[in-house]
Automatic annotation (TrEMBL):
<feature type="domain" description="ABC transmembrane type-1">
    <location>
        <begin position="170"/>
        <end position="443"/>
    </location>
</feature>
<dbReference type="InterPro" id="IPR036640">
    <property type="entry name" value="ABC1_TM_sf"/>
</dbReference>
<feature type="transmembrane region" description="Helical">
    <location>
        <begin position="30"/>
        <end position="50"/>
    </location>
</feature>
<dbReference type="GO" id="GO:0016887">
    <property type="term" value="F:ATP hydrolysis activity"/>
</dbReference>
<feature type="transmembrane region" description="Helical">
    <location>
        <begin position="96"/>
        <end position="116"/>
    </location>
</feature>
<keyword id="KW-1133">Transmembrane helix</keyword>
<dbReference type="InterPro" id="IPR027417">
    <property type="entry name" value="P-loop_NTPase"/>
</dbReference>
<feature type="transmembrane region" description="Helical">
    <location>
        <begin position="296"/>
        <end position="315"/>
    </location>
</feature>
<keyword id="KW-0813">Transport</keyword>
<dbReference type="GO" id="GO:0015421">
    <property type="term" value="F:ABC-type oligopeptide transporter activity"/>
</dbReference>
<keyword id="KW-0812">Transmembrane</keyword>
<keyword id="KW-0472">Membrane</keyword>
<dbReference type="InterPro" id="IPR011527">
    <property type="entry name" value="ABC1_TM_dom"/>
</dbReference>
<dbReference type="GO" id="GO:0016020">
    <property type="term" value="C:membrane"/>
</dbReference>
<feature type="domain" description="ABC transporter">
    <location>
        <begin position="476"/>
        <end position="715"/>
    </location>
</feature>
<dbReference type="InterPro" id="IPR003439">
    <property type="entry name" value="ABC_transporter-like_ATP-bd"/>
</dbReference>
<feature type="transmembrane region" description="Helical">
    <location>
        <begin position="7"/>
        <end position="24"/>
    </location>
</feature>
Length: 724
């Protein structure tokens, strides 16, 4: 919302309240109206929350924004009207504290206003920057041992929520005001109960009512804080995932990663945002209540406090247990999520083997395990609650009997004893709140552990290079390259492979299944860094090139081409900034895909389905070849890229791509193929066997080698064809 419109809102809000102020003549009417506006405000904050949840789930920012803007505006108006009514109450209450409280409440519209601005502006302020500097400790050497420290985890959690420092500071000030005011509630109530007949009591009672209503309003605002913190945490975590090396994804199941992203971040943000405010409020109420109690009777206070340390010790013990249990529950639900994700992704295989029941059982078993752990958690909560209640009850009994004696001995008046007992109940409530806050903070700490581990994880691959030459020639060199995959640290996938390919050449990797052909291609794509040796392009190591530049110049079509659930056009144009229709069609024509695409009812606008499931294997391959050609790459890697095509289509693509390429195209092409007839005409063929480069040369040269592996492979394939 523009600033001008916001000012109009506030202006009209105030005008409106002045008019109503003139119309109303009694405090009861004001109270009724105030109640009414409060209820509306609570409803609005509720819808606001739904809107934010919507935003979160669908990640459809524009829709959500349109949805919540009217609520946002209404929220401001209601807040302004409401505050004016609180001001109106001043006329009926001269109590100094009420005035202080009301002044704090007047800050509410300002707070809402600043908060909306905060939502709209993402820039860090100077103060925020300082906060970040103070709390940022990620480069610590013994980070792993620090992770164990729950306080450290909590500190990190606070760091993340501090981005909303304005809302938190204002919210805290308001809560401080409310909490301070609440400190006096028992005093009023004590007097009220002992003088029900007196008219003034009604006024005190109104005051208590107003305080109660304000709670709902504040909660709405803090729930928005939760959503914002949640978005930030998720974005940071997703960003951290995206920069990890491919080996990380080999060793970390996607279901677990997603569960952290979806579930754990939710727990973290909701717990922290809720508890920051509540914790401060509870501490203020605790000290305020204590002061009032001491003022009323020091004897009774001492008697009352005997049980307090015990409650805090119990809270600490159960809080720590909660942290540990919560981590276990999170791990188990992540596992269940992993099973569900894998099953859904592989549903065709599951269906074809009729294994649905087994998968369901696996899923349910994991959830049951997590349920068993949750039972312990539930028992802990129940025991803790029971203990606190019992302690409170005991204290009340002691207070009543001891208090009655003090009244008889004239140490304290009847109304003050009544007030004291209410204070004591309040103190019990506050202590119980503190213990619950501690428990839920520990739950958040448990959930945060692995999220922070992922957030801090530095990718093992060397950092991004900077080379961006205006022209990449396309010479490739493997220099004694070996690789051990991170998922199989004890097995060498390829060993001491060396070869050179000149720019513009078309070469092929051949060899039995599992020999290491795709591994060579993966290394050229820099999915993995070699464990040993060097890979050079135009004489420079590939990690020296800028990441985006490099992947613009090198394109790959993998064994199982993966398409996105978007239109064919979007898939072909994937990762390209401009939307050049002619280039898209040209790329599709070169990949021999244009024909089948134009025959589809929606043509280039046809959706491909998840991982391209709406297209046939051969169609998928052709669309992914077109996607690779879109960027006019200097080096093209084709890993079994035409294996699903019929011989006619395969031949057409091969001719277009490499056998009949015109002289203006100096594209280096590397093919990995099983059907040897398709690579006969290559400039050079590399034969890989059990991870070693055993033969290299043209087809004719390789056929001359007696007992050569290539010759044997060709012989076997010829026999198979003849048999057919
Ligand atoms: N991500 C991975 N993690 C662990 N080991 C892997 C991984 N990818 C491949 N391997 C192993 O590395 C070896 C070489 O595999 P590679 O995929 O390079 O073979 P290939 O020659 O391309 O086989 P095919 O012709 O069947 O595609 C195999 O033993 C394989 O099991």
């Amino acid at each position: 919302m523009e600033t001008n419109r916001r000012i109009y809102f506030i202006f009209f809000g105030i005008l409106f309240t002045i008019i109503i102020d003139l119309c109303l003549s009694s405090s009861q009417n004001a109270l009724i109206f105030l109640t009414f506006t409060r209820i509306i405000a609570i409803f609005i904050s509720f819808f606001y929350r739904i809107a934010y949840d919507n935003y979160d789930k669908n990640a459809d920012y524009d829709t959500a924004k349109t949805f919540w803007t009217p609520f946002k505006n209404l929220f401001v108006i209601i807040a302004v009207i409401e505050q004016a009514f609180v001001m109106y109450q001043i006329k009926f209450s001269s109590n100094l504290l009420s005035i202080l409280y009301i002044i704090l409440q007047v800050a509410m519209p300002l707070f809402v206003y600043l908060w909306i601005r905060r939502i709209e502006q993402e820039n860090l302020s100077f103060l925020q920057y300082i906060w970040f500097e103070i709390f940022n400790t990620t480069n610590d050497h013994d980070l792993q041992s620090k992770r164990k420290d729950e306080l450290h985890v909590l500190k990190r959690l606070f760091k993340y929520s501090l981005d909303d420092w304005k809302i938190i500071t204002f919210g805290t000030i308001l809560l401080l005001g409310a909490a301070l005011s609440e400190v006096f509630v028992p005093l009023y109530t004590g007097r009220l109960l002992s003088s029900v007949a007196f008219k003034e009591a009604w006024l005190q009672f109104q005051h208590n009512l107003i305080i109660g209503f304000l709670g709902g309003f504040r909660m709405g605002i803090f729930s928005i804080c939760i959503s914002r913190l949640n978005i930030r945490l998720r974005t940071k975590l997703f960003q951290s995932y995206l920069k990890q090396e491919i080996g990380f994804f080999d060793t970390h199941e996607s279901g677990k990663l997603l569960s952290r992203l979806n579930h754990d971040t939710q727990i973290m943000s909701s717990t922290v945002a809720n508890n920051i405010a509540q914790c401060i409020g509870a501490l203020v109420r605790f000290s305020g209540t204590l002061i009032m109690m001491i003022k009323l009777s020091i004897h009774l206070t001492i008697a009352c406090l005997i049980g307090a340390p015990l409650i805090l010790v119990v809270a600490k013990i159960s809080g720590n247990a909660h942290g540990r249990i919560s981590e276990k529950v999170q791990n188990l639900s992540a596992e269940a999520f992993e099973i569900a994700e894998e099953t859904i992704q592989t549903i065709r295989t599951v269906r074809s083997f009729g294994n649905e029941d087994e998968e369901l059982k696996r899923f349910e078993n994991t959830l049951q395990q997590s349920y068993q752990v949750s039972l312990i958690q539930a028992a802990l909560i129940a025991a803790q609650k029971w203990f606190v209640e019992l302690a409170q009850l005991c204290m009340s009994i002691i207070m009543l009997s001891y208090g009655a004696k003090l009244v008889r001995d004239n140490y304290i008046t009847g109304p003050d004893l009544l007030a004291f007992i209410i204070y004591q109940l309040t103190l019990g409530g506050v202590l119980s709140d503190i213990s619950q806050i501690y428990t839920s903070m520990m739950t958040a700490a448990g959930a945060s552990q692995s999220v922070f581990d992922y957030l801090d994880r530095q990718p093992i691959q060397k950092p991004n290079g900077i080379l961006q030459p205006s022209e990449l020639i396309g010479d490739i060199e493997f220099n004694n390259v070996s690789l051990t995959y991170p998922a199989r640290p004890n097995e060498i996938a390829i060993q001491n492979i060396s070869f050179k390919i000149k720019s513009g050449q078309t070469c092929a990797f051949v060899g039995p299944s599992g020999s290491g052909k795709s591994t060579c291609v993966n290394l050229l794509e820099r999915f993995y860094d070699p464990s040993d040796g060097k890979i050079l392009i135009d004489g420079r190591e590939i990690h020296e090139y800028d990441h985006k530049y490099f992947h613009h110049k090198i394109a790959m079509v993998g064994q199982e081409p993966v398409l996105f659930n978007r239109t064919i056009r979007e898939n072909i144009n994937y990762g390209m900034n401009d939307n050049d229709e002619t280039m898209i069609i040209q790329a599709a024509q070169q990949a021999n895909a244009d024909g089948f695409i134009t025959e589809l009812m929606n043509g280039y606008n046809t959706k491909c389905g998840q991982r391209g499931s709406h297209l046939s294997g051969g169609q998928k391959q052709r669309v992914s070849i077109a996607r690779a050609l879109m960027r006019n790459p200097t080096i093209l890697l084709l890993d079994e890229a035409t294996s699903a095509l019929d011989p006619v289509n395969e031949r057409l693509i091969q001719d277009a791509l490499y056998y009949k390429k015109d002289n203006s195209q100096s594209r280096t092409i590397l093919i990995s193929a099983h059907r040897l007839s398709t690579i006969e005409r290559c400039d050079r063929i590399f034969v890989i066997h059990k991870g070693h480069l055993v033969e290299q040369g043209t087809h004719d040269e390789l056929m001359m080698i007696d007992n050569g592996i290539y010759r044997e492979l060709v012989r076997r394939q010829t026999i198979d064809i003849d048999d057919d």
